[in-house]
Design brief:
globular; alpha+beta; 4-stranded antiparallel β-sheet; 10 strands
Amino acid sequence: MMGNTVGSQRNLTKRQKGILIGTLFGDGCLEKNGKNVRLRIEHGLKQKNYLLWKYNELRNLVAGKPRLVVGAVDNRTGKSYKRWHFSTFSLPKLNAYWYKFYRHKQKKIPKDILELLKLPLSLAVWFMDDGYKRNDCNALRINTDSFNNDEQKIVQKCLMRNFGIKSKLHRKGEYWNIYIPNSEAKKFCKIIKPFIIAELKYKISLTP
């Protein structure tokens, strides 16, 4: 209880807001915890350094240190999924993001995405979470599987208006993703490169 009281007095810097927004478009999730909301961040073993980077950026908002979480054993493989995890305090300042990003407890593209997704830092964090370069060319994908086609079209408009990036919707299996074609990849990577951590530079390593 005391921890949440202390946490409720914490302010988010502009940089922390940028990271938060990118994380919410990506792998992060918000959880109702009593009156307020907390941010939950988890990444696999190979992305431990990335999680630690987020932890260090948000440290004043976090109660405990990152910890290794071991999931239930998969009956098909006999293996358990391990991941690194940390959560923030439950903060009144996060409540507004819950109402922006969640409808009926399901994550959605916010209606005010044009105002939210403005910083190159936010775009970089989203790409570090969910983006990758194709193996056969320089085209990039952002895994937006959980959003419907109408929402992804809204993302496309935002990328064009706020960053000057033209994108397409490409089908991958059953799902559609945001697709940055070869012609736009260099511009996109130039925008986010200053914010990509060393361990994830491979995601924007374009071939000549």
